What we know:
Layout lengths: L1 E6 L2 E6 L7 E3 L20 E4 L4 E3 L4 E10 L5 E6 L2 H7 L1 E3 L4 E3 L6 E8 L5 E3 L4 E9 L29
Antiparallel strand pairs: 1-2, 3-6, 4-12, 5-11, 6-10, 7-9, 7-12, 8-10
Amino acid sequence: MWVILSVGGVEASTIISVVSIPIKRLDTAAPALEGPKRIRSGDAAADLPARHTVVLAAGKRELVPTGFAIALPVGFCGLILPRSGLALRSGISVLNSPGLIDSGYRGELQVILFNSGQEDVTIERGQRIAQLLIQQVSQFHFDEVDELPPSTDDRGAQGFGSSGA
Length: 165
């Protein structure tokens, strides 16, 4: 797909690849769950719904299913990210953010939600609880060596936190 972009009055054409992701509805109960979707056409991620109503106690975490499974092609991964509005309003975030979905996973998408607030929060069935970002990833392998090549900066092997405060 070709897209013409205009930035600061300068037009540039770019190619945007569109990947079709197979999705399976696991929850057929009424009312129908609205599946993962982008709210606006240019959004980077799709919102994920809660499959069930859950009361998330203050300071506690809960694994919340979405009612959907996907089949990511090899060379892609899914990242589960928090929704900023939910975090601001209720103190609810994704505990292992970002959660990683590998291309071989075919199970239900589930989200580990954490309530960092002082009060219990009810997550209603169908409520948007997280975002799913699909990313292309490089395939790689490791080559064990006796010595690593030198670093491109002065940090080298100084260790964790060595880049300063």
